[in-house]
Automatic annotation (TrEMBL), chain A:
<dbReference type="InterPro" id="IPR033248">
    <property type="entry name" value="Transketolase_C"/>
</dbReference>
<dbReference type="Pfam" id="PF02780">
    <property type="entry name" value="Transketolase_C"/>
</dbReference>
<feature type="domain" description="Transketolase-like pyrimidine-binding">
    <location>
        <begin position="4"/>
        <end position="179"/>
    </location>
</feature>
<dbReference type="InterPro" id="IPR005475">
    <property type="entry name" value="Transketolase-like_Pyr-bd"/>
</dbReference>
<protein>
    <submittedName>
        <fullName>Alpha-ketoacid dehydrogenase subunit beta</fullName>
    </submittedName>
</protein>
<keyword id="KW-0560">Oxidoreductase</keyword>
<dbReference type="GO" id="GO:0016491">
    <property type="term" value="F:oxidoreductase activity"/>
</dbReference>
<dbReference type="Pfam" id="PF02779">
    <property type="entry name" value="Transket_pyr"/>
</dbReference>
<keyword id="KW-0786">Thiamine pyrophosphate</keyword>
TrEMBL record, chain B:
<dbReference type="Pfam" id="PF00676">
    <property type="entry name" value="E1_dh"/>
</dbReference>
<dbReference type="GO" id="GO:0006086">
    <property type="term" value="P:pyruvate decarboxylation to acetyl-CoA"/>
</dbReference>
<dbReference type="GO" id="GO:0004739">
    <property type="term" value="F:pyruvate dehydrogenase (acetyl-transferring) activity"/>
</dbReference>
<comment type="function">
    <text>The pyruvate dehydrogenase complex catalyzes the overall conversion of pyruvate to acetyl-CoA and CO(2). It contains multiple copies of three enzymatic components: pyruvate dehydrogenase (E1), dihydrolipoamide acetyltransferase (E2) and lipoamide dehydrogenase (E3).</text>
</comment>
<feature type="domain" description="Dehydrogenase E1 component">
    <location>
        <begin position="19"/>
        <end position="318"/>
    </location>
</feature>
<dbReference type="InterPro" id="IPR050642">
    <property type="entry name" value="PDH_E1_Alpha_Subunit"/>
</dbReference>
<keyword id="KW-0786">Thiamine pyrophosphate</keyword>
<protein>
    <submittedName>
        <fullName>Thiamine pyrophosphate-dependent dehydrogenase E1 component subunit alpha</fullName>
    </submittedName>
</protein>
<dbReference type="InterPro" id="IPR001017">
    <property type="entry name" value="DH_E1"/>
</dbReference>
Length: 331, 328
């Protein structure tokens, strides 16, 4: 199968959906001629014109609010939020307006919009350009949240998101834009709420999102050399969450670590771990462990930044302890 | 050029302004080199070309006056009195940096000189600057706060919320809009409707437009507005017409698709703030060629020494990672 970059995969998904549905349009800063700072949208304005690929001023609450209004009245906007950190600027439009409109209107109004943004540290971009804020939006009922872990997921999830009748937030890992993965030429969609078992194993389950899937796979490779069989699962969407696949795996292996790049406290890892603890307590040999980013603003200095996120080494260490039953008494 | 007689105090302040502009340029040249030689983590936004804005304004301020800065903040930081070594250490994430390496280029704050910090959120410091002015007024202090921001930041709603309050409450704040013609890869006329100064005027704020490449014009206006702010006549708004010589950030090298080489050359050769001011200094007999060259050489050496120092300086100990999340 051909391999393409994550950036190209997103570009293809947008182009295909824009060709299929004339109501799909793109709004954001430097999306047209510049094709976004990450060059994800290169070529789209040339094909679809400035009426459908619209450069906005630096007015995030303004254009997100406009996307909500356009979505309520018959368009399917894909909003480009240049950095996930800018979610804090648009929380009212996204969480009070977009998320609640369908419910508050008794099901009469829909907000079929996509907010594509990114996550991820270790790019030396400091505290306001490095956050992974998926927990923030996953907390709000009415929003769906997708977290692609490679070019393949990025394309399939984006196409599904555009066709979904709800507001969907997609977090891409900004360190992954140039990473290549096999992506079929023919059209495909990835349904929401279907986790992907990336690797089967029997001793321990690693549940990892987005940037952390690569880490989990690195751990699986490493531990395999130590005779440990690791199962790696990528939930792909955290809202909706495919609990069944996760529970099935954990009941098989009896040990699990959940890994996500958001801050560990009150985070995605906490939610998934507690669901597993609640629903598979008697199958577990130890409490499900959480591994997220440290509870600190992301520091600039490389000497500090690198220790704030889970790595193959730190996750492998936790896994070894679980397997050795050193964490058996932790509860 | 305003006709000023060559008094001793003029000589001193003119030389200081010249020096500060050259210091900013020298700092940026070194920072760009650090990036190009892959010695600097991450990206940075160059202030080269805009020196007269930061220097003209900051030379009208005292150490007690405050500023808030932007992602393109090295110029403001130097102009407000910062030291090269601590700045380069910060750019390289070293322990001796202004923020112990935690902030980096986009977050340098220099408490000792009243720099409340650069900001990586466009328009993100407008509330902070206005709040600092509110504190000055409430506490009966006569310090003034200058809020630096770009033309692109005028699209942020926050600006209109705080200008309204600043005008209602007559706060000692000066909004300094550095209009360099672009926000990222987009021309200002494509993102700003109507007139920028008229927006401030709509709140009853006196607004001025000034040539941001003319350090004396900027400084004269700033001196008078700062003095009026101290008397309770603020807030004010200044739009400074200027130009950034580099790309949006150091990595923005192939930029002809949004900005022509001819345009860049025109600004650099015909409107450079340092070249222009140097000519004035020579014309007025304030310095000789040799003296200017000596100043330039001394500053270039300072910058090179500071870089060499910062490259050798240690990183913070890893135990610092969770220090400073909460104040004691
Ligand atoms: C709220 C927010 N939106 C978008 C960005 C990305 N961004 C960084 S600088 C910039 C352009 C700013 O233009 P301007 O205010 O004119 O300042 P200049 O870079 O020209 O000095 C943009 C869009 C950001 N940092 N913050
Ligand atoms: Mg600008």
């Amino acid at each position: 199968m051909r391999e393409i970059t994550l950036s190209k995969a997103v570009n293809e998904a947008l182009a295909e959906e824009m060709r299929r549905d004339p109501t799909v349009l793109i709004l954001g800063e430097d999306v047209a001629e510049a094709g976004t700072p990450f060059k994800v949208m290169s070529g789209l304005v040339e094909e679809f014109g400035t009426e459908r690929v619209i450069d906005t001023p630096i007015s995030e609450p303004g254009f997100v609010g406009m996307a909500v209004g356009a979505a309520m009245t018959g368009a399917r906007p894909v909003v480009d939020l240049m950095f996930g950190d800018f979610l804090f600027l648009i929380m009212d439009q996204l969480c009070n307006q977009a998320a609640k409109t369908h419910y508050m209107s008794g099901g009469k109004l829909n907000v079929p919009m996509v907010l594509r943004t990114n996550l991820g540290a270790t790019r030396r971009s400091a505290a306001q350009h490095s956050q992974s804020l998926q927990a923030l939006v996953a907390h709000i009922p009415g929003l769906k949240v997708a977290m692609p872990s490679s070019a393949y997921e990025a394309k399939g999830l984006m196409k599904t998101a555009i066709r979904d009748n709800n507001p969907v937030v997609i977090f891409e890992d900004k360190l992954m834009y140039q990473d290549k993965a096999p992506v079929p030429e023919e059209e495909f969609l990835i349904p929401f709420g279907e986790a992907h078992v990336k690797r089967e194993g029997s001793d321990i389950t690693l549940i990892a999102t987005s940037s952390m899937v690569q880490v989990a796979e690195g751990v699986a490779d490493l531990l395999e050399t130590e005779g440990v069989s690791v199962e790696v699962i990528d939930p792909r969407t955290i809202v909706p969450l495919d609990e069944d696949t996760l529970l099935k795996s954990v009941r098989k292996t009896s040990l699990a670590i959940v890994i996500d790049e958001g801050h560990q406290s009150y985070g995605v890892t906490a939610e998934i771990a507690s669901r597993l603890n609640e629903k598979s307590f008697y199958h577990l040999d130890a409490p499900v462990q959480r591994m997220g980013a440290m509870d600190v603003p992301v520091p600039f200095s490389p000497a500090l930044e690198d220790v704030t996120v889970p790595t193959v080494e730190t996750v492998a260490q936790t896994a070894r302890k679980l397997i050795a039953r050193e964490m058996f008494d932790a509860a | 050029m305003p006709a000023k007689s060559k008094t001793p105090s003029n000589t001193e302040s003119y030389l200081q302004m010249y020096r500060q502009m050259v210091r900013i340029r020298a700092f940026e040249d070194q920072a760009n080199k650090l990036y190009l030689s892959a010695k600097m983590p991450g990206l940075t936004h160059m202030y080269s070309g805009e020196e007269a804005v930061a220097v003209g304004i900051c030379e009208a301020l005292t150490n007690e006056d405050r500023i808030t800065s932007t992602h393109r903040g090295h110029g403001h930081c130097v102009a407000k009195g910062a030291d090269f070594k601590a700045m380069f250490c910060e750019l390289l994430g070293k322990e001796e940096g202004y923020c112990r390496g935690k902030g980096g280029s986009m977050h340098i704050a220099d408490q000792s000189h009243g720099n409340l910090g650069a900001n990586a959120i466009v328009g993100g410091s407008m509330g902070i600057a206005t709040g600092s002015a509110l504190r000055a007024k409430l506490q009966g202090s006569d310090d003034v706060t200058v809020c630096f921001f770009g033309d692109g930041a005028t699209a942020q709603g926050l600006m209109y919320e705080v200008m309204n309050m600043a005008a209602l409450w007559k706060l000692p704040v000066i909004y300094a809009c550095e209009n360099n013609g672009y926000s990222e890869y987009t021309k200002t006329e494509e993102i700003a409707a109507g007139s920028i100064t008229a927006r401030a005027e709509a709140f009853g704020i006196e607004a001025f437009k000034v040539d941001g490449q003319d350090v004396l014009a900027v400084n004269d206006l700033s001196q008078s507005l700062v003095a009026r702010c101290r008397k309770g006549e603020g807030p004010f708004f200044i739009e400074l017409e200027t130009y950034r010589y580099h790309g949006h950030h150091v990595g923005d090298i192939n930029r002809e698709y949004y900005r022509s080489k001819e345009e860049e050359t025109d600004w650099k050769t015909n409107r450079d703030p340092i070249t222009r001011f140097r000519a004035t200094l020579l014309e007025q007999g304030i310095v000789t060629e040799e003296q200017v060259e000596a100043i330039n050489a001394e500053i270039a050496q300072d910058a090179a020494d500071a870089v060499a120092y910062a490259l050798e300086a240690p990183y913070p100990d890893v135990s610092e990672v969770d220090m400073h999340v909460y104040a004691a």
